[in-house]
């Protein structure tokens, strides 16, 4: 299904917005080129209403759009654009999506607009777009690992048909759950790229060992299962914990780590493919 034609869309300039559970993730495209990405907090309704009056990026407050990210050439292109800003949205938070419904220059990308075959109705739009962006950029078969709040695996075969996937708690969520749902275990966080001892002699390292080694073993198992189905299948990884997990994989399973395509902006690439291929 094609996206509705946007009356104010210009080939030169458009915004992509991914509405996540805790943050808004933005991207600026000029033509088909991804120029810059940034994050903001969820915006209150009155700010969205103010944005509806903005005709260019120059009209946006700096807390919404960080002009410091732009090069001189990018600023020149933006200065020449006088139409209202079209925003293409992918959201996993219905309440947040509803706040944007009255923004006059918005198009929400829904699951039926992603050309993957064999999708089920409750597949997350974020997973579908990331898989589509990865597959269209590097080729199918493609498995996408999203190392975010949840750790997800989503794959499609050479015919661009959904094979399926899996969802489990991400590394931070596992640490938080043990700390919040038990009476004696501490809340543990890890920003350390060094693997903990596997057989620990204190509680904090024991938690780190249990979570990290089990998580890495699970990732390895899913990747090996993927390669057993598709020996030449590609694997891309995204998400906020990607660097942490890649460092762990490099230490434990270097032959797997070196095969991963690292690209944090897969969802935006999926949106770009849909917007541009539908002649928006």
Features:
280 residues, 9 helices, 36% helix, disordered N terminus, EC 2.7.1.33, coenzyme a biosynthesis, ATPase_NBD
Sequence of strands across the biggest β-sheet: 3-2-1-4-5
Q: Strand percentage, roughly?
A: 15-25%
User: What is the count of DSSP helices, taking H or I runs of 4+ residues?
Assistant: 9
Cα-to-Cα separation, first versus last residue: 13 Å
Give the C-alpha Rg: 20 Å
Order of helices and strands: EEEHHEHEHEEEHHEHHEH
Mean pLDDT: 85
Largest sheet: 5 strands, mixed
Structure description:
The structure is a single chain. The protein has 9 helices and 10 strands. It is α/β, with parallel strands linked by helices. The strands form 2 sheets. A 5-stranded mixed β-sheet has the order 3-2-1-4-5. The chain has a 5-stranded mixed β-sheet with strand order 8-7-6-9-10, sandwiched between helices. α4 (125-138) crosses α9 and α5 packs antiparallel against α6. The longest helix has 27 residues, at 203-229. It starts with 13 loop residues before the first strand and ends with a helix.
């Amino acid at each position: 299904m094609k996206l509705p034609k946007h009356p104010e869309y210009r080939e030169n300039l458009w915004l992509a917005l991914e509405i996540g559970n805790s943050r808004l993730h933005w991207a600026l495209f000029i033509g088909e080129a991804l120029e810059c990405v940034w994050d903001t907090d969820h915006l209150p309704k009155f700010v969205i209403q103010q944005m509806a009056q903005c005709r260019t990026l120059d009209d946006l407050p700096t807390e919404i759009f960080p002009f410091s990210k732009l090069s001189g050439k990018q600023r020149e292109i933006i200065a020449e654009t006088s139409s209202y800003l079209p925003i293409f949205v992918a959201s996993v938070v219905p309440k947040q999506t509803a706040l944007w419904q009255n923004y006059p220059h918005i198009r929400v990308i829904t699951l039926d607009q992603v050309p993957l075959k064999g999708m089920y109705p409750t597949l997350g739009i974020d997973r579908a777009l990331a898989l589509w962006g990865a597959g269209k950029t590097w080729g199918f078969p493609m498995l996408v690992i999203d190392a975010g709040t949840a750790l997800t695996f989503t794959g499609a075969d050479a015919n661009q048909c959904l094979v399926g996937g899996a969802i489990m708690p991400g590394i931070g969520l596992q640490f938080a759950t043990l700390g919040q749902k038990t009476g004696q275990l501490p809340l543990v966080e890890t920003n350390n790229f060094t693997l903990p001892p596997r057989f620990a002699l204190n509680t904090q390292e024991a938690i780190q060992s249990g979570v990290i080694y089990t998580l890495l073993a699970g990732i390895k198992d899913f990747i090996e299962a993927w390669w057993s189905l598709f020996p030449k299948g590609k694997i891309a990884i995204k998400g906020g914990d990607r660097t942490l997990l890649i460092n762990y994989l490099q230490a434990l399973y270097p032959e797997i780590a070196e095969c991963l395509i690292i690209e944090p902006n897969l969802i935006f690439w999926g949106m770009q493919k849909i917007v541009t291929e539908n002649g928006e």
